[in-house]
């Protein structure tokens, strides 16, 4: 299968130049191994069934043997042999060189206090790279006429930019997801990738992640509740009540352990609340927004397809926000930033707040169609007035991210950008 360039290719190069080792972490099937292999000079596949038992024996006796090879050496799915973390850390100390190791992992290991094989953090030695499924720019489905970097730099020139995606197209790519393996398949077959991923997650992966037995039906019920509450600040108590409607025996502790497992597998990835300085004394809500790493996981667990997802346009709006967040997160990573959300007690909100590490920030509202654009633009300009710009600065830009066709800049300065026109 042809390798499609990833935004993370350059990020990995950058991190290897300044670190002895880089950990690429993210959900299964998002392309971690393929991306790491583009730069690796030697590779060891820990889960190779023909070699797995031998690798474990070597790790039990002398883990440094697994690190021998041309560098950078890639250890794929390293977390199945947690002692390798300390072996890499120690080797980095001894070699005192950059660009030595690439580690990939589709689950975070148990916390240090729960895992005697991981005795030290990798601070200063092992850099981290969070990888997500492919954005529309990476899958060549966004024309990329509008650059997030150019918007921040104030250099974006606007022309007659048109997205290639209709609402029906968006519904399809939303259900298909950004899984690299799906892109070369027939359109109908590609939709099965996310379904298969959810089935494997429910029946196998959640049990492997911490070694505890979890009921598949209960895992699926938790995922369905999360999907029904996608892009909202729904409390865990609400998810609990939702699951308990069909499973009265589930406890708070059990739900917490299930959600923790899903986070460690990089399946759910909530958006944290942005807490800026305000001109007024309005309270800011600090709850996280519920999100998936890829919207296709939500549509798969809800048993939706590209046709049925459009039948409930209210739900489609929440799914579209989650879908846009995936792409904006990928693009923001390339700019060294983080994506938050904002909601205060007066119900003034912004679906996405992009904050770069140099302090620059921008506010984004996500809307599916043109009818909501006016309210969204006014909402953004009001937010810009409420924040204390003497402390955090003026927003670099305000943008409404849409499922529409045309990109343009309003007279009030707010950008209206279709998701099919955006790139890093």
Distance separating the two termini: 25 Å
Radius of gyration: 22 Å
The beta-strand count equals 14
Strand content is 15-25%
Structural class: alpha/beta
Number of domains: 2
Number of DSSP helical runs: 15
Tell me, briefly, the overall form.
globular
SSE pattern: HEHEHEHEEEHEHHHHHHHHEEEHHEEEE
Biggest pleated-sheet summary: 7 strands, mixed
- pLDDT under 50 segments (min length 5)? 111-116
Question: What portion of residues is helical?
Answer: 25-40%
User: Quick check: average pLDDT?
Assistant: 93
Strand order, main sheet: write it out. 7-12-13-11-10-9-8
Topology:
Layout: H1 7-18, E1 21-25, H2 32-37, E2 42-45, H3 52-61, E3 73-76, H4 83-95, E4 101-105, E5 126-130, E6 146-147, H5 148-153, E7 161-162, H6 167-176, H7 187-190, H8 192-208, H9 216-228, H10 236-244, H11 252-264, H12 295-301, H13 313-334, E8 337-343, E9 349-356, E10 361-367, H14 373-386, H15 389-392, E11 398-402, E12 406-409, E13 415-418, E14 422-423
Parallel strand pairs: 1-4, 1-5, 2-3, 3-4, 6-14, 10-11, 11-13
Antiparallel strand pairs: 7-12, 8-9, 9-10, 12-13
